Amino acid sequence: MKITKIEVQKNNPERYNIFTDQTGREAFTTGVDEAVLVQWDLKKGKELTENELGLLIEDDHERKAWNRALHYLSSVMRTEKEVYDHLIEKEFTEASASKAVEKAKKYKFLNDREFAKAFVRTKINTTDKGPKVIRMDLEKKGVAENYVSEAMKELTDELALDRAVSAAEKKGRQKKGESGGAVKQRLLQMLLRKGYDHETASAAVKEADFAPSEEDEWNSVLVQGEKVYRKWEGKLEGRQLEQKIKEYLYRKQFPMEHIQRFLDEKREESEHGDGKKIQPDEQV
Description:
By secondary structure, the chain is mainly alpha-helical. The protein has 5 domains: 48 residues, no CATH class; 46 residues, Arc Repressor Mutant, subunit A (Orthogonal Bundle); 41 residues, Arc Repressor Mutant, subunit A, CATH 1.10.10.10; 51 residues, Arc Repressor Mutant, subunit A, CATH 1.10.10; 58 residues. 61% of the residues lie in helices and 8% in strands. The protein has a 3-stranded antiparallel β-sheet with strand order 1-2-3. Strand 1 and strand 2 form a beta hairpin.
């Protein structure tokens, strides 16, 4: 077949439409990138065999994959797997995607080792994620284990503890009706979810400076104590009511001295006719 016309595409000046003579009629045959046009020295009057046309289209497909890869890499660093998966998602062939990735590595546009180092530094500086989550994120991005381990060395045990303490202190504000013990348990679970191991999370909770004041702790006891009192005052009385309140507040991890103080005050109220009668009981 002979090329009869070459024209620039209207929507993309870097691509060209190739027309050939097919059974005596001019017909659109394929579009090609400017680089492929130059590579194949395409011009009006040039003859192409069916095999050559197939190779030409294959080269253009690879060029489009390369251009898509460059565009994907233009905004942020990516891993080899991310670029490959993106090209497959855009319906490029596995061969074209693999060649684009290898070319990007050759020109230093892709480097999983440097990506891992930069990723860890960014997470350290901009998030409070723990080592486990950061490592898992890198593994999901397809970074090789040796690169992951090398990059994770920057997040030392000491630094991880400091970051865990900081995260705990930010979230350590006692909520209304929450005991100090409940705060610690909540923070421990939060740190575990963020990717800190149990040893680091426990140490961070102990070291963090968020201890509630006596007044805050007592106010929380009042909130929870009144809540359980109102729930059971019409059903129980005396020692049974006191035991129910005591068990509830104990499960909420309030200090026993505050629990006893609340019961003493409710007992005084009952003696003055202000509520259900509560009788003294042995402390637990």
